[in-house]
Amino acid sequence: MLLLGTKWSVSLSFDVGAMYKRGISIPTAANGTTYPIRGTFTDVGSGLGAISIIIGNNTRTGTINKNQLGLGTYPVPRVTPAMVNSLSHLQTNVTGNIQQVQDSGYTYTVQLTINHTDGTTTPIIVNNIPVDSSGNFNVTLTSAVEYGDTLFSIVTAKSKSNTDYIQSVASGLQSVRWTVNPVSAISVLGGETQLSGNSVQTDRGVYQAKLQINNGTTYTTTLNDNGTFLFSGLPVFQGGESVRVWIQGISTRTGSPLLVSTDFIRTVSYPIPQISITQTVERKNAQGNWEIAPSVVTGQAVRYTLKTTLINQPAAWTNQQLKSSIPKGVTQLSAASLTKTSAAGLSVPIIGVQLLTDTNLNTQYWYYQNTLAANNFVEANTSFTLQYTGVVADDMADQPLAFIDTINGNDGGGAAISTQNRTTTLPVKSGLLRFVQSPTQISFTKIPVPSKSTTYSPTNVNSPLVIADGRVTKSQWHLLLRESQAMHSTTTNKTVNQAFTYRKNGVDYPITALASQVYAYTATDENNVEITWNQQNGLFLKIGPDTNINVNESYTAELQWILSDTPL
């Protein structure tokens, strides 16, 4: 038992070098100046030499006034941590170098400690990795490292002659790296239910593509080995949606994401509106009804209809513009009407159609531009119908009517769409009852001086006799013939009156100075009607003995064809 007034002291010493040779390294003082020390005196029992402590306050503290307990010149190798080469995701081979000159009296090995990012509490320790004479080491792990795993190394030098061994301090933590490249391009259009894209990766790993639409639902798909991905079965893109696409690297241990790329953000293009253009030209027939017009005639009333229809969904056609050129030669124009018809078939009139003039082409056209949101097309099968009437001018025979239409406007996002042009042409025929062709020369040759009344057929007719009735309202027409100049000698003043006859169904009718009907017909269309001549029908020369007829003498006469639509 200590007597009152008795004092004790403790002398503490240790050999840093001896500790170092047992693998113990003392780090630099934590506070940078001194090492703290502490001791507590306790009762060690009774008997000879026993120390019995009965007075409290037996703990004492102190300091070692050094900031580092170094080896100084102590004759042992200095062992430092190894340098481990950079580690990549899913790598299994670890290499490095101890970066120090090896003492020939010692054998050097490396210890690696790997901490998993998946939360596994027990680290993986790989011991006794041999070091070659160049300081290099190499080890194959039983399982691959993943992004986020950390690793540190310790180098051990073991004496070849005794039990001494020297161990370095632990190296700094080294993390496994992994680069996840972002999306480089996507393809998505309004009206579709899929989105595709590309993101080529340079590091090994399991990747997924992620998609978020308008900061809402998130979708996941696989990133293929070639860097492509496809999201299908999505809600129909209307156009204007904001899409965010990124790539995430997936843990092969847990299936959870380890790393994500930067975002690729785009706005979905609005669908391009597909617009059908229908051009219809009608003519008014004899009954006063409108019918499809394969052709028209001068003086005939025509009705033109332009129909433009939005045919794809979803899509929008906004700020619509219609330009319908009026063909040259269409006169007596009516006002143009414009009607909007919904997909449900509800029609409403639209105002604002203007009749304008193109001063460069000296033509007129109907023009409409929509300025009201209510008249935008946002549903398939919505249409505009523009219609007007006119009359074909009399001087337009054999000149086609050209109906030229131009449409444009914007899509649902306000971007201009491509201008569409459409042209339809219509042949124009004469609207008159007319001769298409008529003979200007009829020859009778080698005619002998007759001894009795004889009928002769023409030896040559230089043109057929063709008539066409272009009138919209057909009625019977009549062909008349008269002798406007009697047959007479070309060298003398000898004249033979009424030398011609017109035969109808085998019956001859004399041709006189008074016009008489030789043919009548009621046409059903404007096609040509050719009047054929044969032995039973046509023009003949009929002469008999006459003092005014001489041998070897030429005669001439003039006949007049008359076409009439007036009943006789």
Automatic annotation (TrEMBL):
This is WxL domain-containing protein.
